[in-house]
Amino acid sequence: MSSRATGRKATGSRKASSLKQKNPAKGTRPEDERMGIGATFAYGFQHVLTMYGGIIAVPLIVGQAAGLDGANIGILVAASLFMGGLATILQTLGIPFFGSQLPLVQGVSFAGVATMVAIINGGGGLPAVFGAVIVASLIGLLISPIFSRIIRFFPPVVTGSVITIIGLSLMPVAANWAMGGNSKAPDYGSVSNIGLAALTLLLVLVLSKVGIAAISRLSILLAIVIGTLVAVIIGMADFGGVGNGPIFSFPKPFELGMPTFQVAAIISMVIVILVTLVETSSDIIAVADIVETKVDSRRLGDGLRADMVSSAVAPIFGSFTQSAFAQNVGLVAVTGIKSRFVVAGGGVILVVLGLLPVMGRVVATVPTAVLGGAGIVLFGTVAASGIRTLAKVEYHNNMNLIIVATSIGMGIIPIAAPTFYDEFPSWFATIFDSGISSGALTAIVLNLVFNHLTAGNSDRQSVFAAGTGREVPPEVFAALRDGDYVLDGKIYDVGGTEVACASPEKTRKPGSGRRSKESPTEPQNPANAPLTRDAGDDG
């Protein structure tokens, strides 16, 4: 976009829109492009809509786990919107040493949900969560300058395993929501609750299928709105308490309690912070590639520091760890709007919404069953993202398969058997009762042992290693020629003549020739070209 030709192309491609953007000055970075006020906030609002369902999900999950009432859950939601807006503004506009100055939307990270719920269920409550987030974020702030150098210890085999575990560990939450959320309620697990969840899930799928991109991208949010309206009609939702409380209010520091500091909770949260640093690093690199701008280690460090300082401040106002939202990175690619000021405009909108606790109370009245239906897709998407990351892993002749298998297995244990660690010391149970903590620790340690501390590794890997599936002896390759192919278990040459298979006692030395039904004395091809397999090969 720095050339005149590109500038004309960009402007021409958007003439159909009433919101025209100004061409960037020659030589400026693509992300520094400035637009009119109306266009900035219009496109910024699109970013807010894209991530709104995700940013409100975390306070809802944590608030319900902590047993908060609707009003206090509304405070958590408002605080998450408020801090997400401030973190977005810091990340996009930046100040010295803080902020990547890239179009990245920040919000409450999903990576910490399972760990925070485990801390709450362990008896620490929200104060222990707040304390753990503060300390772990400060530790992350200290290590962020060197994290770009140690990120090699967090390859896709580690991050993919952890992200997959995060999604899987949240599925019981979605199931509990679909059943009603409160196991003591008389209608818990009723057909009406599960039916409402199923309707919401169906709406997500139908809206995702719609050919209109804007509707498809907002399918989860729209499904929640429609599902809630249906619940109101059939008497399963009550908005009577929305008016109880102020419409406008500035978040009060430590309104939900002063933080407490538990060593085990902090250790668990440090693991979450490491995962968050990896996720943010990946998002910064990804959006820089989309925007077509340069990112060096200093800019990466500035982005990570912005993440960590925002996360450290968030608990003061009642929020949690902050991270870049990957879905908004995708939105930048889809829309082609690369301006960081547009995303900063979205941050301003989030701050305003965070100053309206009435919005949080509206969200808190959404029926739990509706959230359950949407959560199946929402949390499943997290697991699918991890699986997509694992697809990038090289499994040939290494131990990556056993790393993934063991890590996911350790992460699933607390889900499959919640009482598995009950007889262990409390500090140990707090760490390993979280699937993400136990799975991440396993992945990190095994990756170091098998992929970095290679002394003693065998050239012939164990039966757990993923191999090629089959091997062909060198003498077989020596007998093949360019164009040979396999069909119905037989070998044919390039002319379609079947190549006969010599019996063991008549097999000649490699390179001495080959036998076929038509031409038994044909000379060997010195190129020893690899076999070309026909589409009909069944062997």
Characteristic terms for this protein:
539 residues, disordered C terminus, single chain, globular, disordered N terminus
Topology of this structure?
Layout: H1 4-12, H2 37-65, H3 70-93, E1 106-108, H4 113-121, H5 125-150, H6 156-179, H7 191-209, H8 213-217, H9 219-233, H10 263-291, H11 297-317, E2 322-324, H12 326-335, H13 340-354, H14 357-364, H15 368-390, H16 400-416, H17 426-432, H18 435-452, H19 474-478, E3 485-487, E4 490-492
Antiparallel strand pairs: 1-2, 3-4
Question: What would you say this structure looks like, in words?
Answer:
This protein has 539 residues and is mainly α. 58% of the residues lie in helices and 2% in strands. It has 19 helices and four strands. Strands 1-2 form a two-stranded antiparallel sheet. A two-stranded antiparallel ribbon has the order 3-4.
Short description:
The protein is an all-alpha fold. It is built from 19 helices and 4 strands.
Mean pLDDT: 78
- Radius of gyration, in angstroms, nearest whole number: 28 Å
Summed up, the helix count is 19
Q: Main sheet, how many strands, which sense, barrel?
A: 2 strands, antiparallel
Shape: globular
Q: For the largest sheet, list the strands in their spatial order.
A: 1-2
Helix/strand/pairing class, anyone?
mainly alpha
Q: Could you state the order of secondary-structure elements as H and E?
A: HHHEHHHHHHHHEHHHHHHHHEE
